C-alpha cells in the first residue's frame, strides 16, 4: 500500500502563537534575526503518573519543516495587521524578509517509538534565531499530542498482555486533525488497527470494524440482522450481541455461526459493548466453547482504559480483543503532555557558543544549558541508564557519573565496559536539507515494541513505577550549576 507523505501539502507557517511573530519582528528589528541559536524540546514529567513516555510526531515535523515558508496570502494577512493607532504592526521590509526566508536549520531528534523520559532532549534545533523561534509552537503542538497518545496506547497495550487492542476513537476525538494524529500515534504505541479509514489511507494503518447497534435495530429481529450481516461479510463476522439481551445475543450469534460453518466459513467472534464485561464474557466463553466455537474471539468495548483492562484481567474475564476509543484518543485522564522548548545556547560574535539557562525557584523548571545530546546505555538488550551530555564529550571514557537534573543527591556511577550505547538524537535536517531516512508506520511501531522491551516491568507498572535513571554528565551538571549561581548573582561562598 502506498503511504501518503506530506499530509499537509502547503505551508503552515502561520500555525503559531502571535507572540512568536512579535518576537521574530523584534529580533529582526534589533539585528538579532540571523544570530545562531540552539533550542531544545523536552518535557518535565511523564504523563499519567507513569514511568515512561513514547516519542511520536517526528514525521509530521519533517513535513512541516520541508514546507516551512510564508506564502503570499500569509504575507498579505500580516501586512494588514494594525496597531491600536492604525499603523502597520509589521514594517514592509520585515514582510519582505519573511518572504525571502528559507528553512535552513539543523535538527536532531529522537526517533519515533523511542521510550523517553523527563528532561531528555527530544528535539534539538540549531540555526538562525528567528527560525528557531518560529518553530517553537508547531513543534510543541505536534510532539505534545502525539507523544501523549502514543504513551497512552502503550500503557493500554501493556495492560492487555498480548491481546489485540483496536483503536476506534474517531467519533470522540478532538476534531479531524486530532483524530488522524491520534490514530497514527495509537498505532505507534502498539494498537493493532484503527476504525479511522482516512488514517488507514494516509498512513497505511490496518483498519477494522464490524457493525453498530443501529444495524441490529434496523431489522425486525436480532437473528435476522445477524443473518443479513453474515450474507454480506461471511469472512468477517463479529456480531455485536448486547443490543437487547447479551445472552440471547450470544445464542443468536452461535446459530448464525453454525450456518456459516455449513457454507465453509467461520465466525470470527462476538463483541460485548455494555454491562458486566467480566461476567458476560465468561458466560459467552462457556456458551461458545460448548457450541463448538472455542476459537471464536470475544471483543470487549465500553469506555476501556489500562486501569479497567487490568481489573478485568484480574477478574479472569474471557476477553481476547479490546476495543478502546474515547479514553485513548483523548488521553482522557491527562489532557496535555506539557513539553517545553527552551533556548540552550547562543553563538557569540567571536564564534563561540554561550550556554543559556532559565532560572526558577522551582528546580524542575531550570533548563539544561548548552548544545546537548543523550546516550542510552544498555546490556543484553536491557536499558541501564540515559546520560545527557555536552556535544564534544568523549564517550569512549569508561567511567561516568550522572546526576539527576532535579535532585542532585540522586547520582549514579556508570562503568561503560561491556555496555552497548545508543546516541538518542539522530540528524534529521542539516542546513535545512533532510538527511534522515524516513521510516514507515510499521517500522516505527516495531521500534516502539523494541524500546518497550528494553525496560523492566517495574518501570512500566501503573502505580508508583520505578524511576529509570536519567542524569546529566558531571561536567554538564557543573556548568549548569555555575550558570544558575551567576544568574542569581550568587558566588557560592
TrEMBL record:
InterPro entries, per the entry: Aldolase_TIM, N/Namide_PRibTrfase, NAPRTase_C, NAPRTase_N, Nic_PRibTrfase-Fam, Nic_PRibTrfase_pncB, Nicotinate_pribotase-like_C
Protein role: Catalyzes the first step in the biosynthesis of NAD from nicotinic acid, the ATP-dependent synthesis of beta-nicotinate D-ribonucleotide from nicotinate and 5-phospho-D-ribose 1-phosphate.
Gene3D superfamilies attached to this UniProt entry: Aldolase class I, nicotinate phosphoribosyltransferase
Domain Nicotinate phosphoribosyltransferase N-terminal span(s) in chain numbering: 14-144
Catalytic activity line of the entry: 5-phospho-alpha-D-ribose 1-diphosphate + nicotinate + ATP + H2O = nicotinate beta-D-ribonucleotide + ADP + phosphate + diphosphate
UniProt organism field: Cecembia calidifontis
GO cellular component: cytosol
EC number: 6.3.4.21
Chain ranges of the Nicotinate phosphoribosyltransferase C-terminal domain: 374-479
Post-translational modification: Transiently phosphorylated on a His residue during the reaction cycle. Phosphorylation strongly increases the affinity for substrates and increases the rate of nicotinate D-ribonucleotide production. Dephosphorylation regenerates the low-affinity form of the enzyme, leading to product release.
MF annotations from Gene Ontology: nicotinamide phosphoribosyltransferase activity; nicotinate phosphoribosyltransferase activity
Any single GO BP term: NAD+ biosynthetic process via the salvage pathway
UniProt keywords, alphabetically: Glycosyltransferase, Ligase, Phosphoprotein, Pyridine nucleotide biosynthesis, Transferase
NCBIfam families named in the record: NAPRTase_put, PRK09243.1-2, PRK12484.1
Family (UniProt): Belongs to the NAPRTase family.
Ranges of residues in domain Nicotinate/nicotinamide phosphoribosyltransferase: 167-360
Pathway: Cofactor biosynthesis; NAD(+) biosynthesis; nicotinate D-ribonucleotide from nicotinate: step 1/1
Protein name from the UniProt record: Nicotinate phosphoribosyltransferase
